[in-house]
Amino acid sequence: MIAPSVEIQMEAWQRYADARRKADRTLSFEDCREAAAAWIGFLNVYLPDQERMSERRLGHNVTIFPSHRASLPRGTSRP
After folding, report:
1. Is 6 helix (H, G, I), strand (E, B) or coil?
2. What is the full DSSP assignment across 12-60?
3. Confidence of residue 9 (pLDDT cuts 50, 70, 90)
4. How is residue 65 annotated by DSSP?
5. Rounded to two decimals, what is the model's pTM?
């Protein structure tokens, strides 16, 4: 495997760093998922094609349950 250029490495790192700062600032689930995807993108810069990880995007393998339908454990109540 040929090492990626410094420019490609820096672009991937900058995407991750920006997404991570945003996720740290907002603590939004979606922003954190974007930061995770950017981290995987950064790691993929250094992996051979056959070993690269997929970058999951919002809406894949995640279910968000409506809170009005979710049951709370016994003995607890909604705030």
Report:
1. helix
2. HHHHHHHHHHHHHHH--HHHHHHHHHHHHHHHHTTS-GGGPPP---TTS
3. very high
4. -
5. 0.64
Amino acid sitting at position 70? A
Q: Which two tokens stand for residue 65?
A: 């349950």
Residue 53 contacts residue 43 (beta carbons within 8 Å): yes
Alpha-carbon gap, residue 79 to 73, rounded angstroms = 14
For residue 30, give both structure tokens. 């979606």
CA distance 61 to 56: 8
Calpha distance 26→31 (Å, rounded): 7
